[in-house]
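Aggregate trends can hide what the representation actually does to any particular protein. The sequence in question and its structure tokens are set out directly beneath this paragraph.
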Amino acid sequence: RLVFGREVAHDDPYVLSYKVQPGDSLSRIASRNGLKTNWRLIQRINGISRPDRLRVGQTIKLVKGPFHAEVDKSGYRLDLYLGQGQSQVFVRSFAVGLGAFDSTPTGVFRVRPGSKLINPPWTNPRTGEYFEPDDPRNPIGEHWLGLEGIEARTKDLHGNGIHGTIEPSSIGACESMGCVRLLDDDVALLYETLTEGNSTVAIRE
């Protein structure tokens, strides 16, 4: 309710109210207020059906961010946090699927700049099979967030990410090629909260 509802609690350090100005768009509002979240989160929490239907003078809720995530491999769980350091607060958990044969690497990563995609194409690195963006057989679903290592032991790892799945039964199991996969609605929310260059993803055993 405090994060994803429309309520703005008194003295909440993570959110603010904003009055829509002439010429505003959701992306412009996010940029103007220095939000470390995707503009689609503004749309979600304010129940805005169409981004092009903002009303001048309308008061909306903004969540500042940044959000960070921690993956517990043994629990097949991703925990989402808001804020930094000692002021960081837990938001919610998501069930995840992981890499077959323990191929999901551990360590601390960051959402790689320029990596976030909606309805992405994908090429299977093992077989070379190519999947078009709208192909219902595309195994990574509708959202992709690429990860880059920020530790000495992870900085040379490439190709890992967070994505959706067309196989909901694989959540809670080890069936991916090493990536962290989530149900479609869950990864859509992560796409809106985790931002490139700001959000970290720590993967633990």
